Amino acid sequence: MSTNRRIWIPLTAAALLLAAIPAGAEDAKFGAKLTGAAHLPEPIDTRAKGELELVVSADGKRISYELTVADIRNPAAADLHLGRENANGPLVAKLFPTNGAAPKRGEFNGVLVQGTLDAADLVGPLNGATIEDLVLEIRDGNAYVNVHTNDGEDPPDSGPGDYRLGEIRGQIR
User: Fold this and answer.
1) Which 3 state secondary structure label does DSSP give 112?
2) Alpha-carbon distance 43 to 150, whole Å?
3) CB 148 within 8 A of CB 167
């Protein structure tokens, strides 16, 4: 057997093996830009903004996330919800606070939270569902994230830093 033939056989086998790897094996990525203008039922006049990054594991069983915010005061909670861009919907996963984290006081800029979701973290209409089910909702344009703020004083919803139903929101794409 010639030297050239000995090289081509393993190279051909390697090429066939790589071609057999499913195209969807790489991690799927999604994101959202959060603003007060996206809040429902009425836009909120706020300087606060945010960005959510989601990465679905190759096996489809986990979602890693990072939520970064800027110019926000008193971030108290962050959640994933089911709902179209023009509708509010039910909570399906809590992002912040979790794992002993506490709401923030005062102005906050930076990574608010990062972590990983799996099926056990799903609640509401996705309780008992899989991460794949959540990903299908995201792909269908039926998921958003919002960040709630709370200054700890009444009345609620008194202005930036005190929107208990959510100050900034973004549709996940």
Assistant:
1) strand
2) 17
3) yes
Which of 171, 172, 162, 173 lies closest to 48, judged by CA? 162
Residue with tokens 């609640």: 123
8 Å CB contact between 32 and 69: no
- Residues 125, 94: Cα–Cα separation, whole Å: 13
- Is the pLDDT at 54 greater than 90? The verdict is yes
CB 163 within 8 A of CB 148: yes
What residues pair up with 111 in beta bridges, in sequence order?
68
Torsion of CA 171, 51, 64, 40, to 10 degrees: -30
Question: Is the CB of residue 133 less than 8 Å from the CB of residue 140?
Answer: no
Q: What is the mean pLDDT of residues 151-162?
A: 92
Residues 6 and 95: their CA atoms lie apart, in Å, by 54
Query: Distance (Å, rounded) from C-alpha 81 to C-alpha 68?
Result: 18
Written as six digits, the tokens of 92 are 């399906």
Residues with Cβ within 8 Å of 87's Cβ and at least 6 positions away in sequence, in order, are 40
pLDDT at 6: 53
pLDDT at 26: 54
The pLDDT tens digits for 13-38 are 444 444 433 444 457 999 999 999 99
pTM value is: 0.83
Cα end-to-end distance, the chain, whole Å: 54
